[in-house]
Amino acid sequence: MNLRQATSKGIGDHRSYGMAVISFLTRYYIQFLLILSVLILGALNPYFRSPANLQNILLQASFAGIGAAGMTLLIVSGAFDLSVAGLLGLCGVMICQLLPSLGTVLTILITLFLGVLLGLLNGLVVTKLRIPAFIATLGMMNIYLALAFIWTQGSRVISVSAPGFDTLGTGMFGALPVPFLVMILTYLVCYGILNGSIYGRCLRAVGSSEIAARTAGLPVDLIRILAFAIVGGCTALAGVFLTAELSSASAIMATGYELTVIAVVVLGGTSLKGGEGTLSGSFTGALFFAVISTALNILNVGAYWQYVVTGVFLITALGVQALRTYVLGAE
Amino acid sequence: MSNFRRLPSVRTIFELSHATRLVQVAESLGVFVLLVIVVVGASILAPGFFTYTNLTNTLITASITAVTGLGMTFAIAMGGFDLSVGSIQVLTAIVAAGLLSIVDPALAILGALLTGLAIGLWNGILISKLRLPAFVVTFGMMSVVRGIALLVTQGQSVMITNHIEFGLLNNGKIFGLPVPFLIMIAVFILLSLLLKHTPFGRHTCAIGGNRSAAVASGINIDRVTISVFGLVGVTAAISGVMLASQLMIVDATLGVGFELQAITVSVLGGTSLSGGHGNLVGTVFAALLLATIASALNILKVIPFYQYLALGVLLIFALAIDTARRAFIAKSLLSRA
Amino acid sequence: MPRQKIGCAPTAETEMATGQASGGSPEPLLSLTGISKQFPGVRALDSVDFDLFPGEVHALVGENGAGKSTLINIISGLLHPTAGKICLAGHEVAFASSMQAQKAGISTITQEFNLVPQLTVAENIFLGREPTRRIGLLDWREIKRRASEILRELGLNVPLGQRVSYLSVGDRQLVEIAKALSLQFRIITMDEPTAALNATEVARLFAIIEKLKQRRVAVLYVSHRLGEIFRIADRVTVLRDGKRVDTRPVEGLTENDVVTMMLGRALKKEALIYQASPAAGEVALSIKSLSVPGFLSDISFDLRVGEVMGCAGLVGSGRYELTRTLFGLLRASGGTVEINGQILRVATPGDAIRRGIYMLPEERKVEGILPDLTVRENLLISAKRLFHRLSELLIDAKEEQNQYERMRKSLDIRASSSSQRITKLSGGNQQKVMLGRALTSESRILLLNEPTRGVDVGTRVEIHAAIRKLAEQGCAVIVSSTDIPELVSVSDRCLVLSRGRMNGLLDRIQINEDNITALAIGQQITADNQ
Fold this sequence. Notes:
The complex is a heterotrimer of chains A (331), B (337) and C (530). Chain A is mainly alpha-helical and 331 residues long. Chain A has helices spanning 3-7, 17-44, 51-76, 84-102, 104-128, 133-151, 163-170, 178-196, 198-208, 210-215, 220-246, 257-267, 279-298, 305-329; strands at residues 158-159, 172-173, 176-177, 248-249. Chain A contains 14 helices and four strands. In chain A, a hairpin with a 2-residue loop joins strand 2 and strand 3 (176-177). The radius of gyration of chain A is 21 Å and the shape is globular. The N and C termini of chain A lie close together (11 Å). Residues 1-11 of chain A have low confidence and may be disordered. Chain B has one domain (36-256, 278-326): Orthogonal Bundle (ABC transporter involved in vitamin B12 uptake, BtuC), CATH 1.10.3470. Chain B is built from 13 helices and four strands. The longest helix of chain B has 31 residues, at 304-334. Mean pLDDT of chain B is 85; it is low at 1-17. Chain C is globular and about 70 Å long. In chain C, a hairpin with a 2-residue loop joins strand 14 (334-339) and strand 15 (342-343). Among the domains of chain C are: 106-183, no CATH class; 283-521, P-loop containing nucleotide triphosphate hydrolases (Rossmann fold), CATH 3.40.50. The N and C termini of chain C lie far apart (52 Å). In chain C, the strands form four sheets. Chain C has a six-stranded mixed beta sheet with strand order 6-7-8-3-9-10, with helices on both faces. In chain C, strands 16-17-18-13-19-20 form a six-stranded mixed beta sheet, with helices on both faces. In chain C, strands 2-1-4-5 form a four-stranded antiparallel beta sheet, with helices on one face. Chain C is an alpha/beta fold. At the A-B interface, helix 6, helix 12 and helix 14 of A face helix 5, helix 11 and helix 13 of B.
């Protein structure tokens, strides 16, 4: 470390204007992309800028968005959860089974509880059995998917309807869809956790350097397990709204969910290495994704492009992150 | 400073405790013993298992999984992963099926293999040149490739009507053994030679075992990485061709979860996730094991979804054993002061 | 890299300065002239001349910080000298990387082996340059032939097909040497090679070094263990404070001569009289027969409230491991640690902190700082409330800023703001933050490892004053350090470890550089020993 770094002249912490610009661009590019895409699409297509469509975008964004909030926290701690698609399916199926007899409020509470429980299970498998997170959760995904299949005796789709429940999916609060409102709330809560609580600091510490965190006395395993539990809870919450919107559930209702959620987080600017993360980025990323998929639908581009697009975005976002690390690391 | 350098004076393998030697033996033979037990169990409990037809089918299923599993073992030995093999399998199956309506089988197969090679090399380039973590890159490519498969087929199935002799790749028998099985044996022999008897294979293990030592020895990490992922792509393509031959009608929804199977058979077969070595024999046995279990469960009319459950549990189980084994060896070496 | 013969031939001056060369060859294999290395704020090497002749074993000694590691790193290509010239076999060279140095024939065997544990001995020896047959397959016969030849020469009795992970440390080291030989290195640098070896393995290593000499390989041998140097080396170069003190043939020298050169004056050892420390408070920590397999054996002492206990020891003495065991990072196999009469069981650092023990880690970069977090967060990560009052989940920004300000003032931490990333701070300031972290944990028992590493002289004094004040306020402190003057200025008593055992527990009167050095090297101090 040299004197220059100690006295830290320049723009903020950066060595030169050039560095500062690059840092800014690579950090906030998703916000630019969102604004740009909305403006361009809105200009080109009259339907796109209709209130109905915009509201639909907000609605669609909330499903992946809510899950991405929890996933951001987990990735900040240095781990991943690939089981969320199965977890969501299982929660959706459970809702359908319980709703007729238990009513809306109780069903939702129990579902959230299940999500947290499954998340804890994921966390235990990763920390206590010391299996790398992504492969452990890949295995758990299969297990959850299988359980959901068995519960529905096949990939049967179960329909469900209850007075209070349906409005969750289709209802509006003012101009905003209810799920979107919940998404905003979720992000506020997660933001509070990540930046305003001791636990959030612990998450970042564990993701930054697990060894140093351990030596500083932090209970690394516990911190990790709780992060998985948060992901489980968020995923279950997303499942509630998705089921409400579809008025049905099946084991495979959320196929590809893990890809979308992780892509949203990475696109938003959170580094896969862990140690730091941006919830506003994930929020924006979720919106951007919804914009793009809606656009693809409107322009009658086949649904199959979704897969390609998601994957390409993920890899491109990784490339941008790699660029950022490379360029800024030279400081 | 690390514990690695401070191991006390343990002499050769012959002076290690019996328990540690057992672990080593278990590593090689464990899956085989398990396989024998399961086969025997299946024969007893599931009537109709030990018939010529059923055994043939089981062997074929196992071979398709094993081929990609062998490639995955190579990747794990290098310390990497490829989550896109399922998508590569389905795309190459579609390519093969599609090409068959235009060209003869040999060219169609070649086209499929080249597709797999290209995707694999691309994965390797992204991972090495851009220094992106393997699993998330292949995770993204998994989606891209499947998307391409969906786009190419537009959701429709592709039926093989020309060159029906292509099905011989699946149904044919040489010396009474099903052709897929022989293909798997050929791949096994080739990859074993590659892994154990060529510098390329040794370098692969070196990168997985101690990356900095590999660098210090002058090994070109990037070139090896790209080659290994290219290899994985080719094995996935071979599986794709075999799958096309088996079903004779393919669509883009096939092969979901195939990567999980490939990883499971590798780890179950004794290849450690920490890298450094690959147990190819174990992979073959594990693939046979998996296919046997599936077959037996089918005969017993167990709901297919329980098989998914079994696969997931099996994977976790295999990984936990891997962890325990490593911890055990480390502890027993250290405790001799 | 310009290669000129000009200016590399030894002049009469250098010949005289470097003493008699062994092996009879008039031209040195490696010759360093006027090598200096400047780091920000410190001159690690100052105009050092050094040479190596083929077939000689040249020992390099000096205290910690004398410049030994820097010199080796320059020779092996890891560092570039700020000034001076390196000549290899008469040609001037400048290594851009360690690979280049290797290609030029210089091999460095460090404490971290460059072996792949999952590969066999033979495969490791030829890694990267495997001989092949025509189809590209490995030529096992050739490998076996050449490898057995080398192993036979070295007297290494290990099966070629044995996986390296099952070998002992001593055997692994020999495999590394075999690898160096197979590449026909002309110079082999060994850095503390015997630190982890037992007596038999040391003897074997020396026999092999003899064989290396016969093959005209030059060996640069760096070690603290003077006894070994006298067994194996031909010449010895002593460094002190970055300068070369002298280079002399080993024949005719005594250990005391060498130590005198290292310290700059004669070693005066005072009689060892065990006495209870006068200002003894109650016992904070009572360690009885503590053993950690492979590192520590039968360590017993009491740590008292209000005292600063120094802990000294060279590489391989167990000094590094002692505090880590007390903090729960290593597991003891025998003995007990008692706190207030109760047996202490710590499985994790979290346990230790809850019992009031905190450790400042030795390697700040690896296990100390949290690189993505701010200065303030790094400072407060172990703060007391995290472990004692779990109800306080939210961050009280104002309170934290106050705490930060207090620490900043008392330790004089130079940071542009508390929300600056810690990686932007200089090393010395980072160390102060680490110290502050230990202080905010409000632990009664502090284990400080190298507390002033990377810190400038003025701050060092302040930190030492802070440590003493902590003791006065009722803490019990262990300062574990390789910096002997630091131990002298700050300790009430000083524990000295050698080869995993306690070699002495010095009282205040007896604490001086000479006594500590002597005990650390393994000597005994008795009344009639001068």
